[in-house]
Amino acid sequence: MTNRVKEAPSYQKESPFESVSPNERPPLDDETFMRAIAIERARTERSKTPFALMLLEAVSRDGPERNGSALDSVLAALLSSSRATDIIGWYKERSIVGAMYTGLVGNDKNSALCTILDRVIATLRHELTFEQLNQVRISFHYYPDDWNEDESGRPSNPVLYQDLMSSEKGKKSMLIIKRMIDIAVSGSLLLVCGPLLLMIALAVKASSKGPAFFRQRRVGQFGQCFTFLKFRTMYADNDHSEHREYVRKLINSPTECELLAGNRGPVYKLTKDKRVTRVGKVLRRTSLDELPQLLNVFKGEMSLVGPRPPIPYEVAAYQTWHRRRVLEVKPGITGLWQVTGRSSVKFDDMVRLDLRYAMAWTPWLDVKILMRTPLAVIRGSGAY
Question: What is the pTM of this model?
Fold first, then answer.
């Protein structure tokens, strides 16, 4: 092993590295490191200042003990040459080292990552033997990440969201209860409402040409897309470009939507939409068009209670913090948004309600929302 680097690298002129001894700042364990990733994501959502996550893994045929030795040296090197604001620890205990470089400046993502990589490699060359250095594999993950622009609506980099996967495992028993309620209630309602579903389907078919059901790709939890079911309320083969543009304005230019909506305030759905049939207006006003989603619930693609599942082109217009509503909980037929004002609630407020639900969720909260749903449907507030 050669002597330690005398001058620690700097990624920004405004924030030079501060050499920190490993004894003064021990590496985080994997659980704490995952929490730190979640905190940095939240910080970036507010400050819009990106961060980079670097993962280092030792690959050797000599077994885990040899890999562990190399990673111990990597940790020591990173801790001794990092800034006080950098976060160093185990991304996966004794298997993958993680380093988060926060407070990055500038708009050139590739330049920032190349600068970090050059500095890290220079440090490792001084701290590791040639054999150890050859065992190390480095990958970079930048946040905010680019979400796929195709129909999947899925995050392009699940590595940045492993804490959300872990939290799902921690709630396994309560999620089993939620799933049992979903199956029992949706199955019972499908049986009881069978004749009503048939009558509505016949009415839709008689009112205009086209299928009785409307099928659309929607984005579920963790960006997993599924086929969303509703009774068709519009004329068949209509153009969705008007709604696409309206939703984009609603998310990014709410003031413009307020002017269009007048005193009502911005609404999520287009009002006086000429594409809606006469039967469709009745179905929307009474929310009967939503009944086929009981099949989505029974199949496990949705829950009875949860955020409204968005269309992929809606997700493409989301700000970074909006994306959490499709990451933290499974979508549902009803939720806090639906029982609090539905389409009359502003988009950002809708997202906040969804996030509040995700944070406070319990099976009992689901029961209370389900009990409030019939009254919200009868009032018809915000239904268009």
Answer: 0.78
